[in-house]
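Dear H.,

Thanks for agreeing to be a second pair of eyes. The structure we're designing against is below in token form, covering all 618 positions.
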């Protein structure tokens, strides 16, 4: 039964292709008919969290229904999901917005949520932005979306320069990089291929294939001595290396033979990302949290990094908090000191790790990101996962982003340089840049700006202190060297109105509905009035309070009459009345008398009116 809708259940009526909703208290007739299927329905799944119904019919059609509006939200046909075999069951994950379908194989369908097309929300792409990179050669930003659209942007003004679509057919782009000259763009997709592009005109130069079509998660361009290579990793759990030879005229290239150590001692889970150092080290991270450092020259494993589980830690992330989404090797100057930090990773356990890869490898520091809110630290959000990281060339500033859209600016100058650290580095600034997961970060040192992309279809530009410059795709152009063209002090509208952007407050954490907030306000106002009334009464009472010394002085100064009587003391203090002695006059005798004057004689009024004779006419 769905939460918020009491006592609803479902009944499949055989071959009539209709889903009926019943109320158990009124079972005589259904309250709604869900009609869209053209063949009999054999399976239904209900999601309580999102109030959704998922139904599968015999023609392999999957329908998504809204449990409240009783409307069909989506109808996924076999030509769309391309799942082979006989469909048997389905299950929905509300956290990842993914449908799991069971046939002769397990398939995942990701539901694409449309962006909020508010007039104040500016979109850079029509689909979620997967990645973006800054090209130093042309001083342009290249961004990719899930639909395979590649766009070129002018960073200094925010203008859209060029775009081309369907880079990987109907498959999404997952990663990208440039070659050493910056003139060629290399993209990896969910179709298991890498493509080399002339991104200025959209011409595909070469296609890098492999034995399977599993998704590619990361791609890098590297140079070992005089040899140039393209390396990609992904769900096939292999390190695929391609030669980049300018004299090779082939359009389609196959990978080199795999390293022996990669086959025997490589990853046992999907590889998520890789990083290349200046000293011919290659690092790969797996879905299980294992990081392997390879020697690019020999192809052997140099060391393996495994982070122990923190004490008292509980898994709150959908992925179990073991995945490592980003790794960065530090400059080769750091390798002279074997005890300094050589590698930074954004996981596992949702923590930023500082590693040394020599002397058996060790963790020098690890910490969780914290959000700075309203002059104090906000409590950590459950399930926070660092998705991207970037730092400057001097290793002084580290920028990290999480799956809630926050960007963190840390000062890591000389942090974990001379040994282990117990405390996290100084947090310079934290701000919310997007409402959804941040997919990439770029820091341009010449202009001192931070560029962030997100699944909310936006690409935004920031100053390192969190000042908002603008969003790529907006009508107004900006000038990076003129602060008057910045959007600051404004913030993006979607970030401003999002509920997660609000600061922590006891009322916000306990109240759930608008009516409860109104009721609480009425109760608080009533209590406030009663408190004011009580305070007023207490203040009045305080005005009548007299200490004992004052009472003693008033009694001594009181004038008591000499008349002897048995009256009490409190009767003496009563107002005096006029006391009459026996020899004194009474009140009647004290009245003033006047001479009586007789009344004047009565005069008859004169007869001024004569009686008129009355005449009668016949």
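And this is the sequence the design step returned. I haven't edited it by hand at all.
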């Amino acid at each position: 039964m769905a939460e918020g809708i009491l006592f609803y259940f479902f009944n499949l009526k055989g071959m009539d292709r209709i889903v009926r909703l019943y109320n158990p208290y009124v079972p005589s007739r259904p309250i709604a008919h869900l009609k869209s299927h053209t063949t009999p329905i054999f399976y239904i799944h209900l999601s309580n969290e999102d109030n959704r119904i998922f139904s599968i019919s015999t023609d392999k059609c999957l329908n998504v229904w809204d449990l409240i509006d009783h409307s069909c939200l989506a109808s996924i046909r076999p030509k769309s999901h391309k799942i082979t075999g006989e469909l048997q069951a389905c299950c929905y994950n509300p956290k990842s917005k993914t449908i799991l379908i069971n046939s002769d194989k397990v398939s995942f369908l990701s539901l694409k949520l449309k962006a909020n097309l508010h007039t104040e929300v500016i979109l850079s792409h029509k689909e979620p932005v997967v990645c973006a990179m800054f090209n130093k050669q042309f001083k342009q930003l290249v961004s990719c979306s899930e639909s395979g659209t590649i766009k070129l942007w002018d960073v200094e003004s925010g203008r859209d320069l060029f775009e081309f679509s369907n880079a990987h057919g109907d498959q999404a782009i997952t990663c990208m990089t440039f070659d050493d000259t910056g003139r060629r763009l290399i993209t990896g997709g969910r179709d298991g291929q890498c493509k080399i592009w002339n991104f200025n005109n959209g011409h595909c130069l070469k296609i890098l294939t492999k034995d399977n079509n599993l998704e590619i998660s990361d791609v890098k361009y590297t140079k070992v001595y005089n040899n140039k290579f393209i390396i990609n990793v992904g769900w096939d759990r292999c390190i695929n290396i391609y030669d980049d030879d300018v004299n090779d005229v082939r359009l389609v290239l196959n990978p080199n033979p795999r390293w022996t150590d990669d086959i025997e001692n490589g990853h046992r889970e999907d590889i998520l990302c890789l990083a290349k150092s200046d000293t011919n080290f290659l690092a790969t991270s797996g879905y299980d949290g294992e990081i392997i450092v390879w020697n690019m020259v020999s192809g052997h494993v140099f060391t393996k990094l495994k982070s122990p589980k923190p004490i008292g830690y509980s898994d709150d992330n959908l992925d179990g908090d073991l995945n490592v989404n980003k790794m960065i090797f530090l400059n080769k100057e750091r390798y002279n000191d074997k005890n300094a930090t050589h590698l930074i990773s954004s996981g596992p356990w949702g923590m930023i790790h500082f590693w040394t890869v020599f002397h058996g490898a060790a963790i020098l520091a690890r910490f969780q990101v914290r959000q700075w809110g309203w002059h104090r630290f906000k409590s950590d959000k459950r399930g926070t996962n660092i998705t991207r990281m970037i730092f400057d060339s001097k290793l002084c500033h580290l920028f990290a982003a999480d799956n809630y859209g926050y960007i963190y600016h840390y000062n890591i100058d000389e942090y974990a340089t001379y040994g282990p650290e117990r405390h996290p580095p100084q947090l310079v600034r934290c701000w919310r840049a997007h409402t959804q997961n941040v997919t990439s970060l770029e820091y341009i040192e010449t202009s001192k700006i931070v560029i962030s992309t997100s699944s909310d279809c936006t690409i935004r530009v920031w100053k390192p202190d969190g000042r908002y410059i603008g969003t790529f795709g907006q009508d107004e152009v900006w000038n990076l060297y003129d602060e008057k063209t910045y959007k600051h002090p404004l913030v993006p509208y979607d970030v401003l109105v999002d509920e997660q952007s609000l600061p922590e407050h006891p009322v916000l954490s306990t109240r759930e509905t608008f009516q409860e907030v109104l009721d609480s306000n009425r109760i608080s106002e009533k209590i406030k009035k009663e408190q004011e009334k009580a305070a007023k009464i207490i203040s009045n009472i305080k005005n009548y309070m007299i200490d004992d010394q004052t009472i003693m002085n008033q009694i001594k100064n009181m004038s008591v009459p000499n008349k002897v009587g048995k009256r009490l003391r409190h009767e003496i203090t009563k107002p005096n009345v006029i006391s009459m002695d026996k020899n004194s006059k009474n009140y009647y005798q004290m009245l003033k008398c006047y001479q009586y004057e007789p009344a004047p004689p009565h005069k008859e009024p004169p007869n001024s009116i004569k009686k008129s004779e009355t005449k009668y006419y016949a």
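Two observations from my side: The first helix runs from residue 78 to 81. The mean pLDDT is 81.

Warmly,
E.
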